[in-house]
User: What shape does this take?
Amino acid sequence: ARATATTRGRRAMWIKSKTDARGTTRARSVDLATCARALSEILPLGAHGATTSSVNLRATVERRGLALNERFLDESMRARTKLSQVEATLEALDGARERMRTALETSKQKTSSLLRETARAKEELSVIESRRELVNSFAVDFQLTKAHVDALTTVENASGENTEGASTAATAAPTLPSVFFQALERVKVIQGNCAKLANTDQQRAGLELMDVMTSYMETAHEKMRRWVVAKCRLLAEEDDFVTEGDERALRKAMSALRLRPTLFKACVEEVTRTRHNALFRRFITALTRGGAGTKPIEVHAHDPLRYAGDMLSWVHQAVAGEKEFCGVIFTDEAIEGDQDAFDPSKEMLSKVFDAICRPLKVRVEQILASASALEGGVMTAYKLANLLPFYRNLLGELLERDATITKTVSDLCESAKTSFADAVAQHGAKYRKLSLAPNALAGEDAFSPPAVLREGVASAIELLESVATSSSTASGSDAEARELLALGVNGVIDPIVGAVEAAASRATEQARSVIGSSGPKWSGHAFALNCLHAIREPLRSHAVAAAKVDELSRAIAKRVSDVADGEAGTLLASCGLNDALELVVLYQEQHGAGDSVMAKDPALQIDKLASALSTLVDSAGTNAPEFNEIQAPSMRGDVVSRYNDKLIEAYTRVYAAILNPSSGYGSDARSKVRHGPAALSTVLG
Assistant: This one.
């Protein structure tokens, strides 16, 4: 085994040596080939090249080597020159570097103190910058800008000039700076920040700043109050032409002043006073000089209705404009449910019209006083009494009922009613003086309504037709219109009715006092019935006189009853049945009380009662009155019907009492009475 291993080792070494030899031989072959190519380039082969190359090879190689060395020397000299230049440059640079280093060291030594100062300055600048940022932040949170301060403390006139301080009053055309309300809000924000600052360890600074801001706020509020008063005065003189910018500014100003109740109330009172005076001047101007394109109201003083209507229309327009103005400047910020809360609109509207109440009242009362003296004074008074409630209700819708102007117009409404009543009374006074009693109580026309009565009724109807026509115009209310119309109807008709009543009384006295008078005892009733009928019938066609028609109907019905009852009583008395009827009624009311039996009463003997009843039946057919003095068939029929009913009722009551077993007349009482109630009904028809 050991021999085998040795043999294998030797074989490997031999193989390695062969391999190295082959590699060396291959390398040598490559070098030889390279040399041959080089030689071929140096010594090119020609026709006789082989011999010549062999001879001159050494010389050629030497020459070539010499040329290469010369070339190498030339290149080396140039490189040396360049290197010398580079070395010189480097030496110059090194010198410059050294000089710079020296200068830098010198400069560093000289500026070291300056650098230290610069570093210290940088540190201080950093501190200053931080403080500046802190100051800026403080100014943002706790200070006003100059523009804001100027806006709060100066007043700008129409000319653009500024006046310092709140003590300077607003001019005729004042303006507020555009940033005024922004500055005011800014003050409120700063006050809130100061309140927070006062709760920290900087309490003193917070309180001082709070005092400054409060001073600015006081100045701004006072200036704003003066501006509002001046602006409202100017707007009142210019007939309340409010621009959109003024509207916003006034609304903001009033909202801001609400935070100061005392100042706000004083501002409202001053605005009310200025507008009160301005409104008075405008009203007098409208009365005496007129306005743009309009004539003075007093030009139409000769026409009472138009004169009063123009004044009331101007007042209504002024009230509507003033209410609209209040809606513009006063926001709805009042506390709901608080009855004691100050209402600026109500306060202003209730007082601003006080100035025109007296001149308006005096002029309207003059119109009312002169209305009755004019031709057609009743109609003029009625139209005025109809017009005033209309404007009173219009003003009541815009103002409170306790407003002075509303009360004034309400008083004028009452004065107008009184004036209308006076005019109607004056119109009807002439009928009270007339004597309507008939001269004689005999003849066809003795009981007819006199011509003067028909003329008076015709005049009243004409007035009512005019009133009914004018009632279609606007008036206060249905109840007031009915009251006014009733006042007119009563004022016209009542004097005529009174004259009729007086004439009827005189006719009745005449019929009773004249011996042998051919007229009936109820002549006065007949005359009154005919006259009342003549008055009532024309009134039926007028709905406005319905109440008066009912009143006349009741008066007619009463007289109809009086006539019928009187004639029936006369006939019953002549038959002896009147006293018997009273006793029968008395016994019936005392029914069941002891011995109260009708048959035992001597005045109620069956024979007497039967005779009275028989006489009544006979007399009813022969002595019944025809009531021809009553001219109206309907009334005459009512009288006859009432007369017959009265007789039949009396006969029936006595007849029933006789047949009543409790009366004590016995079972044969029926046979003693000849006629029953039906017989009397047949006789009376």
